[in-house]
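re the bet — no i am not wrong, look at it urself. input seq straight from the record:
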Amino acid sequence: MNKLILIVEDEDILREIVKDYLLDEGYKVLEATDGNEALAIFEEYQVHLIILDIMLPELDGWSVCRRIRKHSDVPIIMLTARSDEDDTLLGFELGADDYVTKPYSPPILLARVKRLIDSRYSREDKFSNEDSLSGNGIQIHFPSHLVKVDGVDINLTHTEFEILAYLMQNPGIIITREQLIIKIWGYEFDGDDRTINSHIRNLRHKLGDKANSIVTVIRVGYKFEGRA
């Protein structure tokens, strides 16, 4: 089944350009021009990825992202005309998986879309040949993309899921921030350490009492500690 992508962009020309690129690659596309319309479409259709502009009429992209993240881990790429790192970090803190700064190259955006779609929905055993991993009361189930803490489901974003899975795949091994960036986003990612820190902070918050399973190694990175 071709994946369905929602483009939320109020600039008609930009929206049409992105739409044409996605259609040419075989994706199905829905369009929204403001935040409220985006939420209405998201509630009605099974969307596989959202391309979300920040500066929208009615309801901005940050608010849309926040509301969607209350009950969905659908991959979200945020588009921003701002170069302020704090704005980008806010998007990550709200649960965005990636961002592209305007003006951008449509092929680069398309590459980001493909990466997220492949890593989120492909069954190529990216992390493990097994269906699940467990440690310290945390269990990951790859086919369903679900995570449980002491038997209770928790809702992680796609990026948070990937980070947790990668750390749990390598228990007791220090994973540098650079390794995480390459593993999760690839070499083309232009973020910095604060991006990783934001995702780790969100992940720990959701893990609750198990947050100490992710140990910070100062000036190096992180490691997962927990018995199976």
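see?? The chain has two domains: 4-121, 132-224. told u. also The mean pLDDT is 86. so pay up
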